Amino acid sequence: MKEQRRAKKAQIDAKYATERPQKPYKDTVRENAVFENYYKQQGIVGTDEWEDFLACVREPLPAAFRVTGSKSQAEQLLHLIQNNFFSQLNTTTSKGEEDTKELATEETSTTSVSLSQTLQNTDLADVKEVGVSEASESNGSVTAASDAIPDTDGAAAANGSTAAAGDTKSSELKPPTCLKWYPDGLAWQLEYSRVSIRQNNTLKKLHSFLVSESESGNISRQEAVSMIPPLLMDIKSHHKILDMCAALGSKTAQIIEYLHADSADPMPEGFVIGNDVDNKRCYLMVHQIKRLQSPNFMIVNHDATRLPSLTYTNEKTGSTEPLLFDRVLCDVPCSGDGTLRKNPEVWRTWGPGHAINLHSVQNRVLSRGLELLAVGGRLVYSTCSFNPIENEAVIANMIKKCEGAIHLVDCSQQLPDLKRASGMKSWKVQTKNGDWFSSFEEVPENKRSWVRPSMFPTDDMESLNIHRCMRIVPHHQNTGGFFIAVLEKTSHLPWQSPKVEVSESSTESAQADQPGSTTVDKAKEPPTKKVKYAGFREDPFFYFEADNSQWPSIKEFYKFEDSFDHTQLMVRSKEGEKKRNIYVSSKSIKNVAKNNESKIKYINTGVKVLARSEHEMCKCSYRLVQDGISSVDQFVHGRRMNIEKADVIELLTQENPFFSRLTPNTQSNMLKMDMGGLVMRYLHNDSNTGTESPILMTGWRGKTSCRVYVPKFERHHILRLCGVDPDKALIDAEWAIKGKTGPEITAADVEDPPKDGVEEITAADS
Ligand SMILES: C[S@@+](CC[C@H](N)C(=O)[O-])C[C@H]1O[C@@H](n2cnc3c(N)ncnc32)[C@H](O)[C@@H]1O
After folding, report:
1. Which terminus of the chain is more solvent-facing, meaning fewer CB atoms within 10 Å of its CB: N or C?
2. Spatial separation of the C-alpha atoms in residues 642 and 137, rounded to whole Å
3. Ligand 1 contact, 229 CB (< 6 A)
């Protein structure tokens, strides 16, 4: 509860922090002469492309989403989206016009703001901090417009490029676009205005469907270009992964999905640490990550430039070693001008000084990331800025500093359908006063503390392979702007000394396949000055000891197999015997947590697996929790039941159905079982896609009735997979209860299975 309150407070604070300074969209003029002159001078696109570029960045950004989840369920969900929504979008337009004539008349004087804005503004996609000084940047204040849900109704985009309400009626709606470069056709882009959504029932339903499915973690609404860096990280299930500037977590979520993707094991060997300097944003990220119900993540709250050196116990040798990562993402704070289609406020605030302010912190985050990267590991550096001072300059400077220990990876064969431009080899530096410099030698003495040599290109750009950096420019494929560089570390850095063996999983690339070893040189570690923790600091996690007094009864009741290591279970406070909730984390996360208790500022880890649920007739004081069931399912051999589709629908639409409402098999199995928590399994066979996927639901077997503990949005998701419209089914069910249509329902019969309401708010549960 404490965490939920904190997450809620962080959400509210962030909303107001972002709303206060914001101007309504109608005030935002999508023009800025300084911006235009700056990038024309820099030649970020060829002169023949300039007008296309400018026209495109003035358009609102299409909204995008990815279908996530297990492979079979993702396929089923995609089929459902295409069948229920996409197939109707081009044909229902005219019907939608008729349906909504009245509404349209009221609104013909308004100009719409695109769905891209409404969806982007409600999503947790890239949020770049715009126009802040380096000092305030590292304070990590929440300033980006995209956190807020602005009241855009009736507001006009200033350049009038968005469709008017009248247009929506008379023109065909644009069909959704599949992002060809994203694997398996699972990512899509949509361009509908808010008015179109109001006027078209299919769009209205699609909108609430996307919101609902993203709450249950089965789709992620995320800007298209923001999906690229995790794809280029080449993540495997055994990787140790660090996301250095992770909030609000859209890329971290994607990384976690990939960590689980190629493994049948619900607790794979690898793990993901998501870090951010901003305490509030860390709590917001919790919500984003919790949807995925992964036991393999940890959220921490540090300044990435000074991330502490951590240790890890090598499972094979039992020795404690420095924790080095196989994959690092540096999605650094940046000026964010690549997001100006999404955040039109950037047009008003943009200035050439922002990049100069951010260059140093970007260098320092990258440098620390490379120190923490294992030899053979891969680091992806990204920004949503067009500016070479934040991009190529940072990469070139670091490659030179590392004296051959890192190199740019050639990604030209990866994501072949993604259009990209090469890294720039020349550029100039402009100060906020408008002075241009081509080289550091031209910079007057009084500006040299601010304009640094590392901001300029040098003669050796070719030999650094700087062209391997990737620039995504909006007009190439109707996206935002982005910069990505993929680096590989082939030996220890010049300022690190080779002392400790690198773990096997870290030595993947051919270059690193050598008896290399490395550790962070103490002399070059970030200053050990005592860090003052601002904002909330969570209590540490208390893992079960081998002789935990509660475990035997839990183990016996649910018949947990011996191979389940109960010391991976943990609680959130030490005092008292019986805890309200018990969480599980993977072995690897426990390894990190146990080794670094005093060094890490934890925000969140683990997935809830058991909740206290005492009943005089039940032998175990805990019931299984939906969040963590897929993590432990394979170990639980008691209290399980296979059920049928009709049971799933009954259990998800009725509060406490009597056994008599279930199928005969399920009824008889219920009668054979004692009271208490249980897990029900239904093997969903989808005839449309020819795929099978197991659906697990935790519940409670009462005296004469039973119930499931499945959070609202997950209920909706499962019902949809079963071919049931959740809105309709739940309304019908409510009426059935109100009208007491079932002859067997009497007040005296309704029993009271333990109900703590926890799952109902799990989506926000941090
Ligand atoms: C571009 S956003 C990250 C977006 C995120 N990767 C995502 O995909 O949702 C940059 C983040 O860097 C954080 N930040 C700024 N300075 C930082 C620092 N010194 N250390 C760690 N994080 C920092 C900001 O709080 C912000 O959340």
Report:
1. N
2. 53
3. no
The residues pairing with 676 across neighbouring beta strands, listed in sequence order, are 701
Phi, psi of 685 (to 5 degrees): -105, 110
Distance between CA 268 and CA 270 in Å, rounded?
6
Indicate if ligand 1 lies below 6 Å from the C-beta of 269. no
Beta bridge partners of residue 611, listed in sequence order = 581, 623
Check if 358 has its Cβ closer than 6 Å to any atom of ligand 1. Answer: no
Chain-centroid distance of CA 208 in Å reads 19
Percent helix, percent strand, percent coil in the chain, to nearest 5: 40, 20, 40
Cis bond upstream, residue 248 (ω within 30): yes
Q: How far apart are CA 66 and CA 220, in angstroms?
A: 5
Which pLDDT tens digit goes with each residue over 330-343? 999 999 999 999 99
Tens-place pLDDT, residues 34-50 = 999 999 999 999 999 99
Q: Which residue ranges are tagged as binding site for S-adenosyl-L-methionine?
A: 276, 303, 331
Written as one letter, the residue type at 758 is: V
- Residue 177 and residue 90: Cα distance in Å, rounded? 12
Q: Is the pLDDT of residue 26 over 70?
A: no
Mutate to test the pocket of ligand 1, among 128, 141, 143, 277 (most ligand atoms within 8 A of CB): 277
User: Which residue, among 7, 415, 73, has the nearest Cα to 219 in the 3D structure?
Assistant: 73
How far apart, in whole angstroms, are the C-alpha atoms of residue 146 and residue 333?
15
Q: Is a pLDDT exceeding 70 seen at residue 440?
A: yes
Q: pLDDT tens digits for 597-612?
A: 889 999 999 999 999 9
Specify the pLDDT at position 8: 61
pLDDT, mean of residues 310-323:
95
Instruction: Return all residues near 382 (Cβ < 8 A) that are at least 6 apart.
Output: 228, 229, 329, 330, 331, 332, 482, 483, 484, 485
Q: What is the CATH number of domain 227-423+464-522?
A: 3.40.50.150
Quick check: 238 pLDDT over 60? yes
Task: Write out pLDDT tens, residues 462-480.
Answer: 999 999 999 999 999 999 9
Q: Where are the beta strands (DSSP E) in 224-363?
A: 240-243, 271-275, 297-300, 311-313, 320-322, 325-331
CB count, 10 Å around CB of 59?
Answer: 19
In 3D space, the residue among 617, 766, 607 whose CA is nearest the CA of residue 677 turns out to be 617
Listed in order, strand segments (DSSP E) in 665-750 are 676-686, 691-701, 706-708
pLDDT above 70 covers a percentage of the chain that reads 74
Tokens of residue 200, six digits: 């078209």
Amino acid, res. 617: M
Residue nearest to atom 25 of ligand 1 (CA): 140
* Single-letter residue type at 584: V
pLDDT band of residue 728 (cuts 50, 70, 90) is: confident
**What is the pLDDT averaged over residues 670-686?**
96
- Please state the residue numbers annotated as binding site: 276, 303, 331
Domain ranges in the chain?
23-225, 227-423+464-522, 542-584+606-764
Q: Which parts of 490-597 are beta strand (E)?
A: 497-501, 517-519, 542-543, 569-571, 581-584
Output the pLDDT for position 90. 63
Q: Are 378 and 234 in contact (CB under 8 A)?
A: yes
Identity of residue 61: L
Is the shortest distance between the CB of 247 and ligand 1 below 6 Å?
A: yes
Task: Please check whether residue 159 is in contact with residue 29, taking contact to mean a CB–CB distance below 8 angstroms.
Answer: yes
Nearest CA to ligand 1 atom 27: 247
